[in-house]
Amino acid sequence: MVVLDATIVNIALPEAQVALGISDADRQWMVTAYALPFGALLLLGGRVADFLGRKRILLIALTGFALASALAGFAHTGLLLFTGRALQGVFAAMLAPAALSLITVTFTEERERAKAFAVFGAIAGGGAAVGLLLGGLLTEWFSWRWCLFVNIPIAAIALFFGWRVLKESRIHGGTHYDLPGALLATGGLGALVWACTQPAEHGWGSVNTLGWMAAAVLLLVAFVVVELKSSSPLLPMRILANRNRAGAYLVGLLVGAGLFAVFLFLTYYLQGILQYTPIQAGFAFLPFSAGVIVGAGVGSQLTIRIGPRIVVPAGTVLGLIGLAWLSQITPETTYFGTILPAQLLISVGMGFIFMSTTNLALVGVSNDDAGVASAVVNTVQQVGGSVGTALLNTIAATATATYLAANPPTEQTPEAIGRLQAAAAVDGFGSAFVWAAVIFGLATVAALVLINAGKHQVAEVSAPAGHAL
C-alpha cells in the first residue's frame, strides 16, 4: 500500500487536475505532499514503532492511512486533496518501518526470515508497477478518486488479519524521541519545497523565493546543530563520517531529485500530447519496472565482480543519457522511437544504483547503527524526490509560460491554439528533462569523488538490505 501510493496517483493526475481546477504550478503537490512527510518522518516513525509497539503502530497507521485516503478521495478542492496526501505520507512513515520490523522479529529462523524478506522485496518491487496499471484501470473505468479509495479495503483486510495474527513486540527501556529534530527537518524541507514553487509566480530573484530559501537553510542548519547535541538523534551524524556511506546518500538524494519528476511529465506527455488513455499510459510505464528488475540483477553481479565504485557511476550515466534523450521530445515524438528506449536506459541505471547504494549504506557500519543507516537510503530518496519534483515542475511551468508569451497564436482557431499549447507544454517538459539530466550529472560526479568501495568491502555486508521503498 505504501509503495502503491507513490505511483498510483501519477496516472490519475491529469483528470484530478482538471476536476479540481489545480494549476500547472501546483500539480506537483499531488506527488510532493506524500513524499515529503514520508521521507522526513521515516526515521522518527521507526523509533516510535520500536518503543510504543510495532503491532500497535502498524494498526494505528493502517487506520490513519485509510482515513487520509478517504479524505483525499472525497476532496473537492486541490488544498483538501494535498492535505489528504500529506496525511497519507505521515502514516506511511510509521507503516513502512513497523511492517519491516515485524517481519524481522516474527521470523527468527534464518531461512524463514530470508523467505519473508524475499516476499517483502517482491511486493515492494512490484507495488510500483501494480500502482501504474491499477491507476490506469481505476481512472478510466471508474474515477481518479478510486486511486485513493482503493486503499480503504486493503487497509481493512490488513487490520483484520494484523489484529488476529501478529504478536506485539517493542524495545524496553528509556524512550527518547527527537521531536525537535523531526520538526526542524520537516519544517526545513517543507520551506525548501515551498521556495522551489515560488519562481513560477514571483520569479527566481523575488523576495518570496529568496525568503523561503533562507528560512529553509536556517531550519536545516538548526536541525544539524540539534542532531549533534542530542543524546538520541534522529540522524546520528557519525554515520555520515564514512565517505562511501555519505556518497551513497548524496547519490540517492540527487537521483531521487531527478527521477521522480520523470513520471509526472511523461504522464502528461502520454495522455495530453500523444492522447493515450489512462490504461494505455499505465502499460506504457511497465517497461520501466522491468528495466529496474533487470538492472538490479545485472548490477548485483557486477558489484560482486568489480565493486560499487564503478557500478554506481555507470548507473547515473545511463540515467543521464536517458534523460538527455527525453529532453529532445516534440509533439510528434513517438513512444517506440524515443520514450521506450529512454525509459529502459534510465530504469536499468536505477537498478544499478538502488541495489548498490543500499549495500553501500551498510559498509563499515556498527550493529547499533545498521537500522538507521539503511533507513536513511529510503529517506534521502523520498526527500530528494519531493524537492526535485517541486523544482523541476516550476522549471517546466515557467518554460511553458515563456514559450506562450514569445509565440502568440497566428490564428485564433481552436486547432491553432491547441497546437500552440501542446508545443508550449512539450517545451516545458523538455526543459525539465534537461535539468534532470544536469542533476544526474552532479550525481555522477558525487559517485566518482566519494565512492571508492571495492567488491571485497561490499561482500562483507551480511545484513538484509533489500527494503528500499
From TrEMBL:
Gene3D superfamilies per record: Multidrug resistance protein D (1.20.1720.10)
Membrane topology: Multi-pass membrane protein
Pfam families linked to this entry: MFS_1 (PF07690)
Segments traversing the membrane: 28-45, 57-80, 86-105, 117-137, 143-165, 177-195, 207-226, 247-270, 276-298, 310-329, 429-451
GO molecular function list: transmembrane transporter activity
Subcellular location: Cell membrane
CDD domains for this protein: MFS_MMR_MDR_like
GO cellular component terms listed in the entry, alphabetical order: plasma membrane
Alphabetized InterPro entries for the sequence: EmrB-like, MFS, MFS_dom, MFS_trans_sf, Sugar_transporter_CS
Domain Major facilitator superfamily (MFS) profile: 1-455
Keywords of the record: Cell membrane, Membrane, Transmembrane, Transmembrane helix, Transport
Top-level division of the source organism's lineage: Bacteria
Statement: the UniProt record of this protein carries the keyword Transmembrane helix: yes
The name this protein goes by in its record: MFS transporter
